[in-house]
TrEMBL record:
Name of a matching Pfam family: HU-CCDC81_euk_2
Name the record gives this protein: CCD81 protein
Stored InterPro entries: CCD81, CCDC81_HU_dom_2
Superkingdom of this protein's organism: Eukaryota
Annotated CCDC81 HU domain residues: 57-127
Species whose genome carries this gene: Haliaeetus albicilla
């Protein structure tokens, strides 16, 4: 399953297999595929993340966000869109700011590398059995 934040990227949860010393671990881990405007990324490097075609991607649910925040849906949608535009504008202008997502992680740019760093609680919350392996591979 995944969520598309239009103009920014896609958050998804992938299930992958990793070979341990004695057994194969199947772990769930979060990924982020950046989908910012190419003009913003001309001087930046970023990891290429492949999200398999069998992962269902849904657009950000503004109705649920509206209910969670008690703001009207159109206000929430406008706020998200303006925030994405502001962030991409700052990247385009050479500002290297971090973009924090509560309980998920931080999209940061350091040494011209733009990447999503997930909080360990986010990763371990997805994967209880093999959380250390999921952390190592995220």
């Amino acid at each position: 399953q995944g969520v598309l934040v239009a103009g920014l990227g896609t958050f998804a949860m992938l299930q992958e297999q990793f070979q341990g010393k004695e057994e194969v671990y199947v772990v769930r881990r979060p990924v982020f595929r950046l989908e910012l405007d190419v003009l913003c990324l001309q001087e930046l490097a970023f990891p290429t993340v492949v999200i398999p075609g069998n992962v269902k991607i849904k657009p950000l649910n503004y109705k649920r966000l509206s209910q969670a925040t008690s703001f009207p849906q159109h206000v929430v949608k406008d706020c998200v869109q303006e925030t994405v535009l502001l962030y991409s504008s700052q990247l385009k202008n050479g500002q290297r700011l971090s973009f924090a997502f509560k309980d998920i992680g931080v999209l940061s740019c350091k040494d011209d590398l733009l990447c999503m760093r997930f909080y360990s609680d986010c990763v371990t919350g997805l994967e209880r059995k093999a959380s250390r392996i999921a952390l190592l591979h995220t």
